[in-house]
């Protein structure tokens, strides 16, 4: 078989790669637990690169979120979200890693307590699913892609 179609790895190399993937998954678990659940805003400085790039479709498609493409924008969107939903709980339903990327299926559960995208507080409990892909480099999140159930969120808030 031509060299282009074969792969040779040592057992030690496989373990190292696996340990890197586990370390990357640990970064994401910390991000969810410390930043998203415990509202430790300072955790973003520890876990997200200043060179962070957000490729999420929500950034392009949801009014008010278009600024969340970089590190500072991410912090701004977090402030907006927490004003509307201050007591969120994020649960990782599933997680996988390959090379420098970590995939998660998460559920955000919260109560709508503040204005969100022009919608007055409803007091409704909501649950929103999201699929995230985050690229980790040197122990920090450097890129993010996501799909969130924004239609489901708006439906639960009574906006549609």
Characterise the protein shown here.
With 160 residues, the chain is an alpha+beta fold. It is globular and about 45 Å long. Helix content is 37%, strand content 31%. It has five helices and five strands; from the N terminus they run ααβααββββα. The protein has a single domain, classed as Nuclear Transport Factor 2, Chain: A, CATH 3.10.450. The chain starts with 10 loop residues before the first helix and ends with a helix. A five-stranded mixed sheet has the order 1-5-4-3-2. Strand 4 and strand 5 form a beta hairpin.
Oligomer: single chain
Beta-strand proportion: 25-35%
Question: Which H/E pattern describes the elements?
Answer: HHEHHEEEEH
Radius of gyration: 18 Å
The biggest beta sheet reads: 5 strands, mixed
Please give the alpha-carbon distance between the first and last residues.
57 Å
Strand order of the largest sheet: 1-5-4-3-2
What CATH calls the topology is: Nuclear Transport Factor 2, Chain: A
Q: Which CATH first-tier class would you pick? A: Alpha Beta
Query: What class would the helix/strand composition place it in?
Result: alpha+beta
